[in-house]
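dumping this here before i forget
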Amino acid sequence: MEPGLIRQIPQSDFTGWNAAVNRLHDLITAQVVRLAENRLGREFGRTPPGPYAFILFGSGGRNERTLWSDQDSALIYQDEDETSRSLFAALSGFIEEGLLIAGYPPCDGKVSAGNPAWCRSLSEWERQLDEWFAERSFASVRHLLIYVDARTVYGRPALLMQLKRLFADRVREDGEITQAMLSNTLRHKAGLGPFGNLLTEPYGSEAGGFDIKNGAYVPMVNAVRWLAVRRGISATSTLERLALLGDELGQDTATKWREAFLSIMRLRAQTPSLVSEEGWRISGGMLSASQLTREVRRELKDAIRTGDQMQKWIRRAGGR
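structure:
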C-alpha cells in the first residue's frame, strides 16, 4: 500500500472510510459482471438463461475488505438443465477473468465462481449444503462457515436467501453442529503471549512485525460469527452482528467488543500491501516492526485482550 493511501485512513471515522472502500469494491465487481454478460452475448449470442446471484465470501461478504482484495466468490443460478449449466460456467469464467484484469488475484483456496465446485444451480447448492452438514468433517464445517458470510453483490438476492433459510433450518435441527463449528472457530488464537506480550514474527524479512490478520482480526471475526450462527442472525457484517447480539452480550460488552474490533480493523487497513510471486498486489496483513510504536502496541494489546475475552465467552457458551 502506498504511504499516501495509508495517511488517508481516518483515525476517528474509520467506519465511513471502510464503507466507502467496500462500496467501491462492490461497484467494480458489479461492473465486471455486467461486462461478462456482454461478452457472453458476443461469444455465445445469449443472455444469461435465467436468474442468478453472484456472491462474495470472506471479507467481501462481510463488507470488511481493505484496499487490496482477492477473489472469494460463487455463483448460484436458478435452472439446472445442461444449457444453463454450460452458459453459467462460461459466464463465471468470464467474471473471473474480468476480476483478474481489474486487479483481484485468484483465491488461494480456489473458492471462486470460476471453479465448477462454486458455480452451481440452486438445487445443487441445496444438496451440497446438506452434504456438508451430514459429513461434519473439519473441511465440511469450514465450508459451512465460509457460507455464513455470503452476500449477493450482483443478481437475484432471493436465491442466496433461500440457501440462508435452509442453512438456518439445518442449524436448528442439528443440535451438535454448533459444537463442530466451535472447534473450527477456536483454531485461530489471539496473538498475545502468556505474559501479555505481542507474538511478533521472530525471523525472516518480517521479523519484529505482527500478523494482525491471524493474530487479532480473524479470532474476533470467528467468535462473533459463531455467536451469530447460534442465534440465527443472518447479517454478514461483524459490526451488524455485534449490534444484533447486544441483548445477549449486554450493551457494555457489545460496545467494548465493537470498539476493539474497529481498532483492529483500522490497524489492519494500515498494513503495507505486498506483491506476490505472480505479480499480484495483495493485502499483507502484517504490521511492520517500524509501525509498532509504543502507542500502537498499547492499542493492539488492549484490543487483543478483548479478542481473548471473546474466545473465552464462546467457549463458555459452547460448554467447552
